[in-house]
């Protein structure tokens, strides 16, 4: 699926009524030009949450939550970004365009969602009429409440019950086939009127829901013996198993704030954990955890724990999960691994020891990614002596290279150095491994943007974020010289100004959405939440021009100091002597006697 054009996101932010969207979920009260409420993201009695229709931005002075109308939908409704865009566009009567990646994919018709919902209800009705299926679920310990919460049903032991009820004509059969509920027979095996048959037969059925609660696919489990034990819907216009997570919708409906997710293997594991008070359990759908899964998880929570059986297959699955998790490992995120006693799975273990004891296992017995990596390497490699350390380095290098540069990579390398006896500094170990552990290039800029109120660069960025329309009014003759100022954050300021001049924005919300996926985006949002220190855009433009003039003067002073220092060695060229004179004149300094034409 192609990328959503930035121009469309700009249009959404411009057209959306942030007060209306948030007001439908939170009781807002007007306070001057803004609206206030008790924050929906933390408990409080005195309102500290405000919404600015002018900026198209919200901020809580209590917990620090902030963002645009899209950010609110993602945080409050717990929607991934593309689905938040879909939700907002739908409320405005707009279709979401896509760009790149070849022809525009056909958007699934709402009738397909209607069809899967009807079939899910049919499976639920079949369960109430089938005593054998009910006895199986009772034997597995499922309560009526949890069965209803997850919409669990039963597919009849028939080759054509779904086909007969929902596929009376060619168009209906096409839709059933499109969502994977029926299968077309081989042409030479098909007789007239029997070209299709039901995919799911005599199975306990688990509806798979998207983030909006719509049924997009099914998973079916055999009741007695049979193969395959689990059968999932195929890839369809509604369902892409490499990004969907079973139980995620149900986990997000929990009233308490979602802080972590626990990834297990099976449908029944998820359902039983929820039943026993572990409502943050989810499962992948017959695949290993993919980078797309992890991106979705970290959009919702900062902590994820993978639970695996303690046998060989479980350890192999854990190693694959670790390798897929490394590109998403970063400061502020926690990735842990829990190994269950051999012969146990989450379903049986939580039934035996209860939800509280299982929760303690998750929090107390799970290993951080770094410790699991150390343990696994120690078991896989003989690490004694120089040869052992060389083998560790050889095996670790491609793993560390997948971890984004920054604090987490540095800490991970330091832990490996400690565990395997490298008698060197972390920098030396990093050199040995052939990887960088330094901060990313933008770290200095982010630090400059996140400091106190002072700093000309920070003030200039704040003005552009709060009054983006003034970018077109910058007239400072010293603009080019200002960009030569060796100040942290100057690259961000220059990029922000150039982008706004090339592609104007009218609200703070539009600016923040353009910077959503950039490392500095969160710091721009903090600047947006600061009190506006100028009365209007005209005053902001004057202040911004003055800031550029001061930055140009500072750049000139630094350049002059360097030239004068160079002059002390007598190595100035004629052009440099002329440059000193120009700088002296512009800065109002007396000319040194040894500088001549």
Low-confidence stretches: 101-108
> In the residues, how many domains can be counted?
5
What coarse outline follows from CA principal-axis ratios?
globular
What profile does the largest beta sheet have?
5 strands, antiparallel
Relative strand content: 5-15%
Ends distance: 65 Å
Q: Classify the fold: give the CATH topology of the largest domain.
A: DNAb Helicase, Chain A
Any chance you could write out the topology, listing elements then pairs?
Layout: H1 6-15, H2 18-23, E1 29-31, E2 34-37, E3 49-52, E4 57-60, E5 66-67, H3 69-76, H4 81-91, H5 110-129, H6 131-139, H7 144-150, E6 153-155, H8 161-166, H9 170-178, E7 182-184, E8 196-198, E9 203-209, E10 215-222, E11 230-232, H10 248-252, E12 260-264, H11 267-275, E13 281-283, H12 291-300, E14 303-309, H13 312-325, E15 334-340, H14 346-365, E16 367-368, H15 369-380, H16 385-400, H17 407-420, H18 426-433, H19 443-449, H20 456-466, H21 479-482, H22 490-502, H23 508-514, H24 521-529, H25 537-567, H26 574-587
Parallel strand pairs: 12-13, 12-14, 14-15
Antiparallel strand pairs: 1-2, 2-3, 3-4, 4-5, 6-9, 7-8, 9-10, 10-11, 15-16
Helix pairs in contact: 1-23, 3-4, 11-14, 15-17, 20-22, 20-24, 20-25, 23-24, 25-26
